[in-house]
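Question (not urgent): is this output format expected?
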Amino acid sequence: MTDVDVFGWLADRTGCGVLRMMKPLDALTSELGITTSYDEKLQTKGFMPKVLVGQRVSKDGPSKIWQHVAGNEQRPKLVFEVDDDLWNVDYSNNDAYQWFINGYDKGSRTYHGVQENLRANIAAADRVTCTTPALADLVRQWNDDVRVIPNYLPRWMLERERPRRDRLTVGWIGSGTHSMDWTAAQPHVREFLERNPEVDFKIIGAKYG
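Got this back:
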């Protein structure tokens, strides 16, 4: 791998990975000429970016790598990126709740080390980026240097001419982590659609129809 100014260590390539990591890093390259790269895997031999951004690093293996890099005398600047409150996950978000809060089965025992990994990895970082002031206040108990970077959309999405349809269309896009939101919203959306049969309702992502 060639020299890279900023490397983004992705947690995923879904919405959070795209909007919090991939698109911002692409913009650094296209608009400022900063050399960037990103991947779910971090090459640890013969590769040393100037800045390493780790997204929600919490698994045992990646945490060991993060801590190893943090302990090196000659190392990149470490930025820990967290986009959500992983310490107060609603139980309706079952997968995330099991992973971050309740613990998960690891061999013959239930593993509860994810929270410990999160705290240690945040503390080892030179800087933390997050989405909201409230989340920043929470994270500052482990790292003093926390910067709020709100979610942004790529400019082209705001400039793109929307399709014209004969019927008004109401839409929603999101992952399967919004069960508690739809528990509250569903009856009101249903009532609106029943009162307005000329309106179409479309969902992209999780199936909350």
